[in-house]
Amino acid sequence: METKEYNLAISNHDFKVKGYWLDQVEDFGQTVDYPIVIICPGGGFTFHSQREEEPIALRFNSFGMHVVVLEYKLIDDTPVFPTALQEMAKTIDWINQQPASRHIDKKRIILAGFSAGGQIVSAYNGIGTDPKLRKKYQIDQYSGDFAATILGYPVVDMTVKGSFPADDKIRQQISTDETFWQTQNYLNGNSKPSFVWQTRTDELVNISNSLMYVGKMNQLNLPVEYHLFGSGIHGLALGTYVTKKPGKDKYLNARAAGWIDLAMSWLEMMKLLG
């Protein structure tokens, strides 16, 4: 396997992605084009959680998928959106420009977002699949499509009381454009299938976020699978010792840790894996 960082750019803004590329297996006797996952880690738009980067990337690798981690824009002097959406579009475009020797199945690009990263992915599944909004937010200049999304304890609706973000100041730092405050409203007939999971006792992102997203997907008759685990804190990542913070057993959750096997089974059912 090859791991490599890349510098990409949109307009005058630079950002980084990190690739986890699978090698070909000589024993197969033929080459294989692998699906690829773009991971948007969480971190409340103030940092990129490493617990939701390489540990999850390697698990996806173990199922026969290339992975790219997107280090999207964080809160600074300018709002996160729409720049983060443009970064996603550029990343998809960049993947589509990769040579055949990289062995990517470009028809099986999966977007995976966790917590704040889930806001970006859920927004892209709505705004990024609407031709008028693609033009409005200047992402129509980038080529390439994606096939599905995976959302883990995602931020979807930033107007929910008692949920992230804590106040209007942070919401305005994330986006001054209210379009990005309720991403479920922009899901449409072109939006892609989604696998969504969360825990009922999530103390940071109220479960109404994922419920509203899934409800809108169902209303549009779009393929969706939802798993609400009975207990567990926010930010479980893998829910195993690999992503457990030292001395904090609350980051272990054997039942919720099954989300990744469920997600892979779902991708298999959707003909996006294997």
Poorly predicted sequence stretches spanning 5 or more consecutive residues: none
Radius of gyration: 17 Å
State the fourth-level CATH superfamily.
Answer: Alpha/Beta hydrolase fold, catalytic domain
Describe the oligomeric state of these chains in a short phrase.
single chain
Total of domains: 1
Helix and strand element order: EEEHEHEHHEHEHEH
Domain BD-FAE-like: 30-212
Protein name: Putative lipase esterase (Putative)
Keywords: Hydrolase
GO molecular function: hydrolase activity
Describe the structure in your own words:
- This protein is an alpha/beta fold and 274 residues long.
- The chain has one domain (2-269): Rossmann fold.
- Helix content is 26%, strand content 22%.
- The protein has 7 helices and 8 strands.
- The chain has an 8-stranded mixed beta sheet with strand order 1-2-4-3-5-6-7-8, with helices on both faces.
- Helix 2 (83-96) packs across helix 3.
- The radius of gyration is 17 Å and the shape is globular.
- The model has no long low-confidence stretch (mean pLDDT 97).
- Keywords: Hydrolase.
- It comes from Companilactobacillus kimchiensis.
- Residues 30-212 form the BD-FAE-like domain.
- Pfam families: BD-FAE.
Write a brief structural summary.
The protein has 274 residues and is α/β, with parallel strands linked by helices. It has a single domain (2-269), classed as 3-Layer(aba) Sandwich (Rossmann fold), CATH 3.40.50.
